[in-house]
User: Fold this.
Amino acid sequence: MRLLPGQFFYNMKFADTLLLTGAGYSANFGGFLGREMWSWIFNNSKLNNAGSLKRSLRNKFDFEAIYSEVFDERSNLPSHETEIFKEVVNEAYLAMDAVIQTGWDNLPIHHADATKFLGQFIESDGGTCFTLNQDLAMEKRFGWNTFGPLSIRYKGNWGSLDLNDLDSTDKVLPTADEIDKYKTEAENSSRRYIKLHGSLNWISQDGSDSKVIGINKMTTITKIPLLKWYFDLFKEAISTGDKRLVIIGYGFRDDHINSLLAEACEKNNLKLYIISPTDPVSFQEDLLYRGQGALRSEDPLRSKIWNGVYGYFPYKFSELFPSPQITSNPKLAEIHQALFSSFALN
Assistant:
């Protein structure tokens, strides 16, 4: 059955506690934050043949803003520079994935403890992890995969990885007509992992990159049927009432996500629980007053988000799941008590 514009697929059941991850989540496993991604792009020698882009990056550290200028606003760059930028950005994402995979075994994290904790979000009835990340850490290491045809998924091998046998082929996304048959499968699915901003190696039917990058992300999402469905599922999940959303590593810089969160907190009693190493005072300052000068006032939409925060845990994964393993961790117990009262600590 084809959904009408604005209509949701309401047969999905979602658990009371859901997970949303952003770039800071992948950073726990070696992934790049915004400035690190900028440096990987800026340092690529291919940009030495793209003088205008090199100058733009030298003067602006927000590579996503430049990406929007190039591909959304169609800046007057020479065509060869546009192609170079596309290649360099993709290479930076591939480099991030390689860093995550090669450094996995040397992380100061007890992987079994982290896996046990994260599994609580997707192994329960209706459990779902939504992510804004495009790396493949969860697919390759934890076996998590998203909705859709088998051709866009990866074979998870549960912690063991042959770096000489990585699946890096292009994965063509389904059309709107093809997506319909996966909606029925999704009703009874388990281990739900939904990539709201696309993924490495995902391409559209016309061969264009399907990673959602830049400032105008919602415009891109609405043009890609699979991602539009994912976005509707996220809106549905947090808007059904009295849900808890655990947020790990999201910097609240995406307007389309912030708008959904603010509305669900205000109207649907969505409760937010944030796991972030940032000091809570600094977090609140950045959330409410980002980009403002000395004369400042609370951003109304972001205030609704802050008023929806019911738990804040200023910890890194290395503190929650230290390696070598410890038998009793008060910081992890604090989170368990707030979210999983029946969860076994040992």
